[in-house]
Amino acid sequence: MTDKGAQYEHQPVMLEEVLDMWFSRGDGFYVDGTFGRGGHSRALLEKLDAQGRLAGIDRDPQAVAAGEQLASEDGRFQIVASRFDCLPDVVDQVGRPIDGLLLDLGVSSPQLDDAGRGFSFLRDGPLDMRMDPTQGESVAQWLARADEQDIANVLYRYGDERKSRRIARRICEERKEQPITRTLQLADLIESAIGRGEPGKHPATRSFQALRIHINGELDALTQVLEQSLETLAIGASRHYQLPFSGRPDREAVYSRSLRPGSQGARWFAVGRRNAPAAGADWQGYSCQQGRAESECSLAQCGVAGSGEGGLMSVPWLIRTLVMLVVISALAVSYSVHEARRLTDESQKLKQQQTRLESQWSQLLLEHSTWGSYARVERLAREKLGMKLPKTDERVLIRP
């Protein structure tokens, strides 16, 4: 491990719970798809016997260095420098299917603690956010060239940011004045665009999450690895566990596409934010690493989980969803009845007004019909002008 990587410690999320469900047999072949600093992998190696094998996958150079160190210490372990959607290659190398796959998605503590990586909105550093700084473009480079609509779409799709358009507009205005190259520069810009927002949550949380997911192609990799796992996990004893955060808007779409029926006994680790029950129960849990600001916790710090056989939804989740739908339907019906009554009252008022206008119009027509009559002209001349008709023997002199 490099000196820089060694100074940042990482505590694995829900270690005991993960091991209970990840480990199935001592001589099995396991894959840690997000090796990081190897917390989960080291704990699993302690459970494996001499025939057991473990492959760690990571594209972070510091994580790869930590994996190489572990591989030199334990011959049962090997590190693969790649995205985690390379399962077929790993299985081909080892020559056996996978008995357990772990994906601890997102950004890890060492990546957040190292300001130079650009993941944290609480520490000033270059605006990078690449898992592998040697590959692809940084967030700063992408923000410098992306148009306003693309930026808004990324913030909304990957971060659930409802004020994405306002932030995108502010970014485009700022980059005309100066390049956006620092993390705190972007965080302050976002705060100036949308204000403080939710109590206890930094206004840049959703935007930083969205930019990181986009710049690293995390959802593409997740979709690929879920599809690959259906072909590479061992039949019957295979288990597939994931620890994702709970903020992805199309999370369910990714899982429903990939975790389809016919997984041949694979056990899936689904998603949800819940209170964890007692150890050993069919649990759904949420855990946030102690000592870290809640606003900075993400995929790796906040483990959110639920287990189920051959499906994504647990029964309690389904019941809660149905109750919510019933409540929403009742509110919709109540609102519709209220609107119908309001429209009926307005219709009656309009009919009454129409009747009054028709009456006034009839009176106007009647009055208009008398305007040109001789009797009306004579009456107006007498009443308004003081004129009178001359007698038959009178002469009328009209002077110019």
TrEMBL record:
Its EC number is 2.1.1.199. GO terms for molecular function: methyltransferase activity. It comes from the Bacteria. Transmembrane segments: none annotated. It is a single-pass type II membrane protein. The keyword Ribonucleoprotein does not apply. S-adenosyl-L-methionine binds at residues 38-40, 58, 84, 104, 111. The keyword DNA damage does not apply. It holds the Pfam family Methyltransf_5. Signal peptide: none annotated. It is found in: Cell inner membrane; Cell membrane; Cytoplasm. Gene3D superfamilies: Putative methyltransferase TM0872, insert domain (1.10.150.170), Vaccinia Virus protein VP39 (3.40.50.150). PANTHER family: 12S RRNA N4-METHYLCYTIDINE METHYLTRANSFERASE, S-ADENOSYL-METHYLTRANSFERASE MRAW. Belongs to the FtsL family. Specifically methylates the N4 position of cytidine in position 1402 (C1402) of 16S rRNA. This is Multifunctional fusion protein. It comes from Alcanivorax jadensis T9.
